[in-house]
Design goal:
alpha+beta, 16 strands, 4 helices, 9-stranded mixed β-sheet, 278 residues
């Protein structure tokens, strides 16, 4: 059974029929395949006809890789010799209306839809110039050419980020349950004792400052985000993290509490003026 060498220490044995397909007919093509793919053995035979078969391609448009000719789109796991690129593509790559591709090249892992439209790709990129505006740096970047970057968790639509950096999360009434009214005055009193400080994060540049409260104090005041795990001190405990939606909700409740006080004071002033108008 043919063996494909991954490196000096590992080998993968294919449990399905394999044929080695080279772009030419000479012995040099077999040598090219062995060199490019790290094969122990390569020779030229005909196209496979068995369902589930695999081709090992050694000289196909500058590519060396493993073909799955009976799969949808005839995908190829390949190495592109000219561009030092590794990845997978389907044969519909030549058709602008379809196809797909994933590849790794010089610090970038990218998945393409090959539709020649906005939203063509999504990438994990740490190559030089990965972050627009920083051509000489190699920042780790999650990127796409679409106007939004969407997130789905638990097979639900969760949120998206806009080109301008706005983060928009789901807040649909019909996605919520156990809805309760809150006491605006109670929240206002709790906010009064909530610490709000300027600080730097440990390990960061001390000149970089932020303003905010602390997750422990916020949880003690409002106990949002779930119960504490009393048996294990985990970094994802609700008293160590803050949900932006909870902070925004508390701020809205605080504003409504202040409005209630203002309206009460206005009513008191009006009553006093009426009583003393004569």
């Amino acid at each position: 059974m043919p063996i494909l060498n991954l490196n000096q220490d590992q080998q993968v044995i294919f449990p399905i029929p394999i044929s080695v397909v080279l772009g030419g007919t000479g012995a040099s093509d077999a040598a090219t395949a062995r060199a490019n793919l790290g094969l122990e053995y390569a020779s030229r035979i005909g196209e496979p006809t068995i369902y589930g078969s695999v081709n090992i391609s050694g000289s196909k448009a500058g590519l060396a890789g493993i073909c799955f000719p009976d799969a949808l789109g005839a995908p190829v796991f390949m190495q592109h010799n000219s561009f030092l690129m590794n990845g997978m593509w389907s044969n519909t790559v030549a058709n602008a209306s379809g196809g797909w591709l994933w590849w790794y090249k010089q610090g970038k892992f990218q998945v393409n839809s090959l539709t020649n439209a906005n939203g063509e790709y999504i990438a994990l990129d740490k190559s030089l110039g990965a972050l627009p505006g920083s051509p000489s740096e190699s920042y780790p970047v999650l990127k796409t050419d679409f106007s939004y970057l969407y997130f789905s968790v638990g097979e639900q639509f969760s949120s998206y980020i806009t080109t301008a950096g706005g983060y928009v999360s789901v807040s649909d009434f019909y996605r919520k349950e156990n809805v309760e009214e809150v006491d605006y005055q109670d929240i206002l009193e709790k906010v009064k004792y909530l610490p709000v400080c300027k600080y730097s994060f440990k390990g960061s540049d001390p000149k970089i400052k932020s303003v905010g409260t602390f997750a422990q104090a916020f949880w003690l005041a409002f106990q949002l985000g779930g119960d504490l795990d009393t048996e294990e001190d985990l970094p994802i405990q609700p008293n160590k993290m803050l949900a932006a939606s909870d902070v925004a909700g508390v701020c809205l409740a605080e504003i409504k509490g202040l409005l209630e006080r203002i309206e009460w004071l206005e009513a008191q002033i009006e009553s006093f003026l009426v009583a003393n108008s004569g």
